[in-house]
């Protein structure tokens, strides 16, 4: 296959064709979020849902690589385990061809294809398991549904054929039970309003035909007929039909993996492996991604459900197996009620079987016994609870919406009230995400931005090149060139600070800094960009390379000596990133006068001291550097993978340190009060950031997250690897610890346990993989909320008990989260308050429903069976109380205002503090229930007494009434007394 090389340079504006600006994407995210991610919907765009699971699996694979073989073999996640064990990317292309018994020239034979299609099946995702039956089964049969249905069936049977003659009252009761059964199911369906499906959209995202080599002939085949071992030809614009190992790639071959990663920057394809992680290496092409440019030949290694795309789609489509805290409480309550109910029914059956059936056989026959048992069940089941529960959660969610908090699931509302740990990102959450460069250090000279402006008279100096190139000139030039941010052309007439900027917040700050000393646009027009490596959480630096358009611009960018020796074919490598990563690569530095000097240990220590000083002031520090690569040293053309590899190699050493810049991101003014309020509510607030440890600690102290003086802040050395022989003292309530991401990797189980006991924690230099690990470790002993707004935050947001996204975040982060804050982080206080209020109000609702809707309904049935008096409250009226009269009043309780101490209490212990505990049961049954029961009995039988039917003739009568009582008159007055009992319960 021919490998075309790109002969022309990549112009500055070509980047716009590659990806839309971040600013535009974020604006769309915020605007469309309430429609796509929060409101009721049945399907979710796979381009939003798939990256969440892809990133999660990728991070888990990274973690598994750090474990030994024994730990890896015990991995619970099958997809993670399988993908981490794949080795197609680590073996040579020759070995891959040998294992699949295929030649790159000839491809598979017809016989080989026939065998493999029979073995592996078609290259298509399995039909989605819609789980329709299981889902609807859950709607009808979770909670009290089964009991209601069984009761309805039994009452139908007692009506016919057991009823002799059939009693219409039994038929009416059965119909009502069936109606309540369906009403409960309807409310369960309503609670499931936020469910989503992804698989139904998958087939539209895969190509229909592919160019395949078989029997030595290149031909087009249906993509569903691909099998492992097929040789596939890919060109620009094609989607990859299966997972494949690249055998040949053109110099400009790039692939867009945004459907899986959520990031649209194309990645260059390679023949050799670039990463141990199967999902991150560039020698593997993944199904569903598309060829952005160039061409390649690939060897199919996986098809159908065995592709990464198929596995991730299947995982994305799986429902959450973990019950929410509210679901656990409701299940616990159902178990309690059912246990009491079965006990009472057993007592009724024993009394009937051992006594009534023999002594009073005419009192309760089999149909009446069945109805009686069902009545006991009806009495104990608060049929209105699901209705009141859903109504209460909906009311609370609507109240939270008014405070700019959107809940994507009703069940999440209560979970937030149980949160004991909040892991908060720094940038944009605790801070305003409005970064500004305040100072810069050039050699041994540190100056403020205003001081730097004094050194360069912008009003008189030329826009691009000054007559004398100072250190400030050179810092300004690298800041403008090695920068992915751009000004909005429509706002260029405004002052610099008021202009709209597209790009990352850090790049925005550096761009504005550069613009203060002259036009960045004119500067960039003097250079032609040939390569860019975007900043990422692994590298922690950004690279851009340029060739020159105009010779005169060198004076404002390089030192005088470098400018004189710079030739037309040379390449300027610019790099910007974390000082701790780049400072070791520098061999020279620029002083304040603009001259280049060797970088000795003394200067290295000086820059380290400056970096630490910036960090201790809560400032983010960036190192700016450059390197000139002579034309004779570059063996490949720009735009090729080989060129990119060369640049990456050259960037590892002999850099010239141009300067350091300090960036301030102001803390949100309300954060200290928010953190203080949350801490008063017993919630530990931790900072999780990618910043330097000293920077993170300084900001955490300003925010109130850390209160201990610096000398008393612990570090990783305070976490013993083994439990001491003596009694280990747990950290006191004010103990603090500062720990970095790399240190987390080496922690063992005991160290993690000790770490989770600290009250104040700052996690610095963390990667998205480590954020996911932090969430899972703290979930072992508490309920964890996680905040985030980026694509890489999605796995930790989804893994947390409550994922909290900001309204300005990416669509993928919003999709992964359970809750969205439209205003600011301060809204989380309202969210926690309402989460606790909803739990308190649910207790009130249950305490209201149980006395009249359970206890007071039970005794009419028991007195009928044991004491032989008429059942003063019919089963029909019991259901009316539960489903109608009580529900309306119970719903009003959901509007109850918060108690005064709602944010002064510790979070609910989900393992001990129950929605229904023994205190509530005693109060509901032993106090309120007893009062309502006695009062209702007294009123009903007092009415019968006043109408000539004394209680003494009913007591132990078992249906044998005196002859002077007319049966029709008795039935009429009994119905009226039943109404009195009913009205009394409703009123009370």
TrEMBL record:
What cellular component terms from Gene Ontology apply here?
Answer: plasma membrane
Residues crossing the lipid bilayer are 139-159, 171-190, 330-356, 368-395, 873-895, 916-944
Task: Name any Gene Ontology BP term.
Answer: sodium ion export across plasma membrane
Major subcellular location class: membrane
Compartments where located: Cell membrane
Q: Does the keyword Cell membrane apply?
A: yes
Q: Which domain of life is it from?
A: Eukaryota
Q: Which residues form a coiled coil?
A: none
Q: Which Gene3D superfamilies match?
A: Calcium-transporting ATPase, cytoplasmic domain N, Calcium-transporting ATPase, cytoplasmic transduction domain A, Calcium-transporting ATPase, transmembrane domain, HAD superfamily/HAD-like
Q: How does it sit in the membrane?
A: Multi-pass membrane protein
Segments forming domain Cation-transporting P-type ATPase N-terminal: 87-160
* Record-linked InterPro entries: ATPase_P-typ_cation-transptr_C, ATPase_P-typ_cation-transptr_N, ATPase_P-typ_cyto_dom_N, ATPase_P-typ_P_site, ATPase_P-typ_TM_dom_sf, ATPase_P-typ_transduc_dom_A_sf, ATPase_P-type_domA, Cation_transp_ATPase_P-type
Query: Which GO molecular-function terms appear in the entry?
Result: ATP binding; ATP hydrolysis activity; P-type sodium:potassium-exchanging transporter activity
Keywords for this protein: ATP-binding, Cell membrane, Membrane, Nucleotide-binding, Translocase, Transmembrane, Transmembrane helix
NCBIfam families on file: ATPase_P-type (TIGR01494)
Please state what the protein is called. Answer: Cation-transporting P-type ATPase N-terminal domain-containing protein
